Amino acid sequence: MADPGSWVVVGLDNGGTSNNATVLDASGAFLVDRMVETPSLVRQGPEVAVGRLLHALDNVLELTGVARSRVRAVGLDTPGPASADGVISTKGATNFLDPGWYGFDFRGALEHRLGLPVVYNNDGNAAALYAHHVHFGPDAWRHASVSAIVGTGLGGGVIEAGRVVKGAAGMAGELGHVHIPMQGLLEEGQPIPACNCGFTGDAESVASLTGIEKSLLPFWLTRFPDHELARVEPIGKAAKLLRGYGENGDPLALKVFEQQAMAIGRLFTIAANFTDPGAYFLGGGVVEAAPHFREWFLGKVREHTLLRDEQRQVATVALVEDRDMAGARGAALAALAEISEITTR
């Protein structure tokens, strides 16, 4: 094991409003036990955003009393879509609206400014990697897992032998765009939901805040026309209020979230027959909900995850731990793995 005082890696979780940073020493111990956030300013374009990541790094190093000379590498995660090497899609993305982001090499730009290796993952993969390592601990390298992260969209990640599966174009683990069976999930007369990616009937079209706003809530308001949310405009505002109603046992809200849980369960069922992982993790807004509600939701996901008896004996369906810190910590773990591998070659 490396001397924990010899060197460190830094994890940077880039978001639409904030950057979260953490520090991981050479022995695998985190030196930060909370969120360390600074503004990301991504809407002001790449040059400003890269500068803000440098600020986030220096800020967390100052907080932990670590000299920059001890930093061996940096792990970076961002929202997608982006390539496996951190090049933002040529069509941009929700958080990267400025045309300067189109096709921008985010990882390469940060690496150039830092003069240090930068290891890239998308935010879903980073959170999945952290969930995997927390759950399996020292045996993480011997196991596989699948994570679904529910937010504005549906992100996620596939972990095999403790490493992120990225795929040839970096699109592996895009669980939100896997088509799932709709029969028995939708009510009679309920339209097949459409995803922003152009697909219909994929997991994200149901299990995401966008799915609630575009498809689920408008339908269920036709079944509950006197509901309070029918008077809330725009529909996006009503969608964001729905979780609070679910926590209070509101019938309309529970119908919506049960459909989301069923969609995730069906997604995990596909994963069970494709990768047969040892754990299925659920993250996102539901993890930050009231305990009774998230346990109800997780129970519904388990109910609709159809595993064989042999699989049920060895697999777990659980929540992502430390959801707010999972991205930065997963990014740091990826950097540590990369540097450790180089060191032992």
Q: Can you characterise this structure?
A:
By secondary structure, this protein is an alpha/beta fold. The chain folds into two domains: 8-116, Nucleotidyltransferase, domain 5, CATH 3.30.420.40; 138-321, ATPase, nucleotide binding domain (Nucleotidyltransferase, domain 5, 2-Layer Sandwich), CATH 3.30.420.40. Helices cover 38% and strands 17% of the residues. The chain contains nine helices and ten strands. The strands form two sheets. A five-stranded mixed β-sheet has the order 3-2-1-4-5, with helices on both faces. Helix 4 (209-223) packs across helix 6 (251-272), helix 5 (235-247) crosses helix 6 and helix 6 packs across helix 7. The chain is globular, with a radius of gyration of 20 Å. 42% of the residues are buried. The model has no long low-confidence stretch (mean pLDDT 92). Belongs to the ROK (NagC/XylR) family. This is Glucokinase.
